[in-house]
Amino acid sequence: MGGNGGSGTHADKRPNELLGSWFVRSGWSKGELARQVNRRARQLGANHISTDTSRVRRWLDGENPREPIPRILSELFSERFGCVVSIEDLGLRAARQSPAASGVDLPWTGPQTVALLGEFSRSDLMLARRGFLGTSLALSAGPSLIEPMQRWLVPSPASPAPSEPRPALDPRRPGRLSQPELDLLESTTRMFRQWDAQCGGGLRRKAVVGQLHEVTDLLQEPQPEATTRKLFQVAAELAELAGWMSYDVGLQPTAQKYFVLALHAAKEAGDKPLGSYILSSMSRQMIHLGRPEDALELIHLAQYGSRDCASPRTQSMLYAMEARAYANMGQPGKTKRAVRMAEDTFAEADEWDEPDPDWIRFFSEAELYGENSHSFRDLAYVAGRSPTYASLAEPLMRRAVELFARDSEHQRSYALNLIGMATVHLLQREPEESTAYAAQAMDIAKKVRSERVNTRIRKTVDTAVRDHGDLAAVVDLSDKLAVDLPENAEAV
Q1: Which of 111, 129, 227, 475 has its CA 20 to 30 A from that of 443?
Q2: pTM, rounded to two decimals
Q3: What is the span of the domain harbouring residue 184?
């Protein structure tokens, strides 16, 4: 029974009305849900799972399946409806988990941050191949996410007074890092970031996690205070990148956990601008999951926490993400204001006296145009496919595509903006133009290991088929999708 995801208990079973409600609204048959569960289980390495229609019927009748089935069902329904559908929302019981493996309300102390980073990265390296790490996590949203993140703003306890004795550091100790070694760690992180932009999150994610684990080992050794802060900064950047890559390949709970740990490390490093960037990544994930109110709360936390120290480029990026959140909430006035603020603040970037950190250099003129055009595109969808907002998105998206076409380093962003252009043309009832951009995006997607890109292409093609399925160009595009990006291909 365990191989089919069944529970060992059958007493006092009642029909699971919550699961039944989500199931009916999904439009899936029992057989289709069973096939999707099996496919996702194989992707996770849980090859012992073999579900069929009779098993799905038993779940609907009240049987509580064993892990990892509840997590898989949560992910499948979340993706289907574009919002977080928790295990509890499905009327299922979550397995008991250790605090380190579940939730985001973690202690804001240096030693525990190091311990949790080490534990989580080690588990990821050991278990990700078999898939059980992602299925042991649950996404947090709403107050359970926002309230713990607000503690990022609380000042850390004061450092010991100079008169208080500190442990003596032996300069001959091999664990102490030299400046060239620290420089090498930073340059390696930059290299990983470039690989992600060029190739997507699927190619080097495990290498980033491995490097993060090495840095947490270094943090457990005695180091001078300045070195420790620098190591926390590197750890924060690597954890954010591991989270971003996890998000890119569809490992949403894993991504959120890395983002939270990254924010803790940034706080220990005393790097508020980096913390604001991590919060913006969390915000982007919440928009993707259909939680724009949570996204807005996270962006406001980022803006407030870094208001006196973030560079104009960073502030511009935060305004652009604020616009995305407002757009998805259907608030055009506030969206337009945030778009203007993003543009005005970006214009000050060249006058900034200090060089920007590497993690924000991706936010170029092309990214600015792309983000703002996506805000108007999102507004168009929220407003019932409004041609007015689509017309505001079109020139900005066109400019973003033109700029990214010249940029060989950011191929994933190029693909995402080509898809954005395709969706804008669909909103404008121009299916032939849409298919041309979608086909271009598909050609890039074959070279970029990004489930996020693949999913957006599939959604765009599905919309084109639904609205213009009798058009030859749309039929050809659908055939191309089936060959180039088959849906049963596994995410890395």
Answers
A1: 129
A2: 0.78
A3: 100-153+178-270
